[in-house]
Amino acid sequence: MPLCRPEQCASKPVVRAASLLQLDPDRSEFMNRRTLLRLAALGTFSAATLNSSHGRSLDDSELERALRTFGDQSPDSASASIVIEDGLTTVRHSVNADLPLFVGSAIKTFILAQYLKEVEAGRLSEEAQLDVGPKVWSPSSPVLIHLQGTTTARSVLEAMIAHSDNTATDIALNTIGPDKVRALIKSAGLDQTRIPDSTRILFSYLAGAPEGTDVGWAGISKVMAGTLPGPPRAAINDHQTMVSTAAEMTDWYRHVLAGKYFEKPQTLAEFKRISAMAGAIPQTIPLDIMGYGKGGNLDWNGFHCFSLAGQMVLPTQRVNFCFTINWTGDDASVPTTFSNYIKQCRHLLRMVAAAQLPLKVN
């Protein structure tokens, strides 16, 4: 959700609309909150040995080195978590997994889950027609921006995950209410995970509007043209943000994909169907391996972020993961950082998959 460069914010800022949950080599979408929240020091590396009779054994020392290399990308703001389960054992490998960082659109998984819970309870329907128009348009909406009329809730949820469409996100979030999503997050024990009231309220707040204010599409258009309603704010803050830890995101996928938060099998099936549509999954999980998840990226006022969380399905194991990096730098740092980030994510997941499948690790 890139909005402006530091030197531009001082005079006439240029704000770029961002897709809060797409991994894109030309954009990122996360924040720098050093002015509001202090990041814990890195160095909390942990790993355990998988005791499994399936396939080849996982080289823990090599995996540990790869995780340390991932953490070294941004020594004060990178974290990773890999949790491997085979039905008998649960093994965790991590680096700085409890470090709260901006994760961007990765939080959209919670909105999807709560919406489906409302459908499951009979309070909502995926067939319902939901309004689309300037009242809900939000930056970085490749599917629904500038469209007016109605579309099904199912199409809204798919656009939110498959294309990280922020207009779709706000339609879904406005329909169920952000407090219900926060209640789900709380019930899951995710104490450090936070979501905004909507992406448009988040954009408005970061651009300097008062807390809780939605400046409307006209106001957002002005922001994108370079006119902010107030001094720009840090993406990580105490009011409107998208923050979590690698440990919490990993545990979320462990439990939600096991059906813990749904009453009906068909609800879990629908959650999995839509979660499998996320564009970041085929970018990182080895070809022909099933995966679920959601990614996020942001550029804002010199702050950048990439994040990806989800689950990789192997024949005898479920591999839950989260990889997040936040950093500060100019826009020129984004393509190189993205290339390195995605390469390391792929490498880590291929290392784990290669212990069961005939994959070359590269």
TrEMBL record:
<feature type="domain" description="Beta-lactamase class A catalytic">
    <location>
        <begin position="82"/>
        <end position="268"/>
    </location>
</feature>
<dbReference type="GO" id="GO:0046677">
    <property type="term" value="P:response to antibiotic"/>
</dbReference>
<comment type="similarity">
    <text>Belongs to the class-A beta-lactamase family.</text>
</comment>
<dbReference type="Pfam" id="PF13354">
    <property type="entry name" value="Beta-lactamase2"/>
</dbReference>
<protein>
    <recommendedName>
        <fullName>beta-lactamase</fullName>
        <ecNumber>3.5.2.6</ecNumber>
    </recommendedName>
</protein>
<dbReference type="InterPro" id="IPR000871">
    <property type="entry name" value="Beta-lactam_class-A"/>
</dbReference>
<dbReference type="GO" id="GO:0008800">
    <property type="term" value="F:beta-lactamase activity"/>
</dbReference>
<dbReference type="InterPro" id="IPR012338">
    <property type="entry name" value="Beta-lactam/transpept-like"/>
</dbReference>
<dbReference type="GO" id="GO:0030655">
    <property type="term" value="P:beta-lactam antibiotic catabolic process"/>
</dbReference>
<dbReference type="InterPro" id="IPR045155">
    <property type="entry name" value="Beta-lactam_cat"/>
</dbReference>
